Amino acid sequence: MKILFTRESMLYGLQRVEKAVASKTTLPILTGICFETLNSTKLRLIATDLEIGIECIIPCVVENHGAVVLPASMFSEIIKKLPEEEITLEVGEKNKTVITCKNSLFNIAGSSVEDFPRLPDIKEEKIIKISQGLFYDMIRQTIFAVSTDETRQILIGELFEIRNERIKLVALDGYRIAVREGRGESSLNLERDVIIPGKTLNEFAKILSPNNDEYFTVSLTENQILFDMGDTRVVSRLLHGEFVNYNQVIPKQFNTVVEVNKSSMINSIERAYLVAREGRGNNLIKLKIDDEGITITSNSDIGEVREQVKARTSGDSLMIAFNSKYLLDALKATDSEEVKMEFINEVNPCIVKPLNLNNQLNLVLPVKIR
Amino acid sequence: MKILFTRESMLYGLQRVEKAVASKTTLPILTGICFETLNSTKLRLIATDLEIGIECIIPCVVENHGAVVLPASMFSEIIKKLPEEEITLEVGEKNKTVITCKNSLFNIAGSSVEDFPRLPDIKEEKIIKISQGLFYDMIRQTIFAVSTDETRQILIGELFEIRNERIKLVALDGYRIAVREGRGESSLNLERDVIIPGKTLNEFAKILSPNNDEYFTVSLTENQILFDMGDTRVVSRLLHGEFVNYNQVIPKQFNTVVEVNKSSMINSIERAYLVAREGRGNNLIKLKIDDEGITITSNSDIGEVREQVKARTSGDSLMIAFNSKYLLDALKATDSEEVKMEFINEVNPCIVKPLNLNNQLNLVLPVKIR
Fold first, then answer.
1. Rounded to whole angstroms, how far apart are CA atoms A299 and A323?
2. pTM score
3. Which residue among A185, A362, B310, B339 has the highest number of C-beta atoms inside a 10 angstrom radius?
4. Phi, psi of A211, deg, nearest 5
């Protein structure tokens, strides 16, 4: 194998696939990246930790075809440190690899691609096209509510609902629910519910370009999902099991409704949190809602705080307590400067959503005050 | 005590004194900052960990005089989170402190200033005036060579030589020496050698403005040094003992002299370091110097590297080995795009200095190759 490529295109490819390189693993070869020539002008990079796999195709000049696995972090550091000149990579006997660039020459030990697990072949039945920017937002606005509790396997994933062109991501961890709707493009009449691991969505979000209207396609098998971005493909296992019927849990009737500026509310809770976090768990803050607006208070060993937030309130007065972090997450994820908060009473969940949009909803459970 | 101040001026003061706040300490009060009114428009902030003390005077409106100690990190986080509005701080009975700003109110527990150690009074015999930018550079170009070996107390400090208006900072750790000269302004005829703790210089450098021609003054007592910047004063203990006679160690005669571009040399060593660091200690790289220039090589378990660096060489050919980190530090500290490297043989120290300046010198010991 002998190829020539530019530093820039290799860095692009590395940055794409690095997210799937295994960090700790019982299979040392997974800490490497597989490089293989496809045709005279294309090189494929593959990395996988067996849960998620990413491949990226970059341009190169192929002088001799072949394939090799190279240690990921070492190889990327070398490429980063090389000057902006043409780089040559040549693999000899026993996978000995020589990288040359201008006045630099590296000899490093490669491994055979035979032991490298290939990404599963996914029958390319393209199910839906989604814009990168939209899916990026959908992930960002829900991922924080994914459970980190490994004992409830299904909740470390997000529900991905497909109802023809309407798509939805749902995450919940027993204390809050985050729902975000969007719209893709599809010529199929399809209803599918799959559960995607939170880690996959996290890594995929890092590859997606925010505010970019370009589409990627989603394909599904029984056990796997494929995101295809053209030069880059991300494959991940799906989680199996019954997702919580979140719709049943979301209340529809409320007794107290508040309309408030999101930034004022966030700033006040963040200040209250400085005191709340010193308390005995739960980062507890109290909200008093009445005709005057919202009064946020908290106290702990280090002192007390009181914050007044202007708000348009209607319905019953209410005193309710929250874990400030959960309320902050919900507010920060809401894509609207003005938000609506809806309450039943001090023991039932609160709903946070954009004032004038229906594509997003957050549910947060209150904390009972003794 | 009751004062009014702006968020901006308080943040300025906090940012100055925070560097002296004790992190771990047996004296809890040292994790606080002392605030005391000086006159109707000035507030003094003081922090100290007993090794280094910093005070800063900021503008404020004093309604009632007084003083209080507040927990440093808590107080600064509150100030950072408050809006850009006027802030009121009022201290009541038992040092209970109320901070108010617009719609926010914090009650926090302060401590009595009686237990707070005051900075020593230093008789203000101003010894020398130095420009901030110059001293910043002098510290930056020497501090890396300060020893971290606490068993050789004297070497965790830097020698500060004053010879009338000529000043010098010298750091050494047994493997390398860094010397930087400069010029201050003084009307006294004074020769003094003092040893300033590396930690003090490190923290002081963070307060100094790079590329700023404003002067600060240095005053000295038997045991302390005072840096006075007008609104900010930094006091530190001095180290006592005999500093190494570094002049004796610096060779004056050489057999091999190299003139080389600093960036090319740094880039090549950094690439060689990627391989060297995987070796069995010392980050070993070898330099072969001959008529062709410099060839840098290194090998370790993961592979080999060879780098060619163009250079103007004169004198004997030479093969010499170094800890790549030490050579990198010396080159990076050298303030000149073209540098001169001088060698005697493979066992004697190498000198790195700017090609056309005499204000700076680095000595690096080679590593013996078996």
1. 13
2. 0.90
3. A362
4. 55, 25
**What tens digit of pLDDT does each residue of B274-315 get?**
999 988 878 999 999 999 999 999 999 889 999 999 999 999
The edge-to-edge listing of strands for the beta sheet with A86-91 is A61-64, A2-6, A86-91, A96-101, A104-109, B303-309, B293-300, B284-290, B318-323
CATH number belonging to domain A250-364: 3.10.150.10
Q: Which residues of A touch B109 (CB under 8 A)?
A: 302-303
CA distance linking residue A311 with residue A292, whole number of Å: 8
| Chain B, nearest residue to A299 by Cα | B107
User: What are the b/e assignments for B194-227, b being 16+ CB within 10 Å?
Assistant: bbbbbbbbebbbebbeeeeeebbbbbbeeebbbb
Of B78, B106, B270, the CB nearest to A81: B270
Are the beta carbons of B69 and B112 closer than 8 angstroms? yes
Q: Are A266 and A333 in contact (CB under 8 A)?
A: no
pLDDT number for residue B25? 76
Domain boundaries A126-247, CATH class: alpha beta
What distance in Å separates the CA atoms of residue A350 and residue A329, rounded to the nearest whole number? 13
Of B295, B321, B277, nearest to A77 by C-alpha is B277
- Nearest-Cα residue of chain B relative to residue A266: B81
Residues in B closer than 8 angstroms to A108, CB to CB, are: 302-303
Determine, for residues A71 and B304 on separate chains, whether the beta-carbon distance falls below 8 Å.
no
Asked if ipTM goes beyond 0.85, one says yes
When pLDDT is cut at 50, 70 and 90, the band that residue B127 belongs to is confident
CA distances from A351 to A203, B116, B289, B359 (A): 28, 49, 72, 67
Chain A nearest C-alpha distance from B104 (Å): 5
Give the C-alpha distances (Å, rounded to integers) separating B155 from A306, B242, B246.
Answer: 51, 10, 12
- Give the 3-state secondary structure of residue B136: helix
Domain boundaries, chain B: 2-115, 126-247, 250-364
* Residues on chain B bordering chain A, Cβ-to-Cβ distance under 8 angstroms: 71, 74, 77-78, 81-83, 103-109, 267-268, 270-271, 274-275, 302-310
DSSP string, B35-72: EEEEETTEEEEEEE-SSEEEEEEEE-EEEE--EEEEEH
Six-digit token string for B173: 């750790």
Strand partners, B70: B33
Q: Which token pair is B124?
A: 């203000």
Measured distance CA(A180)–CA(A207) in Å, rounded: 20
**Given 3.10.150.10, 3.30.70.270, 3.20.20.140, 3.40.120.10, which CATH number is that of B2-115?**
3.10.150.10
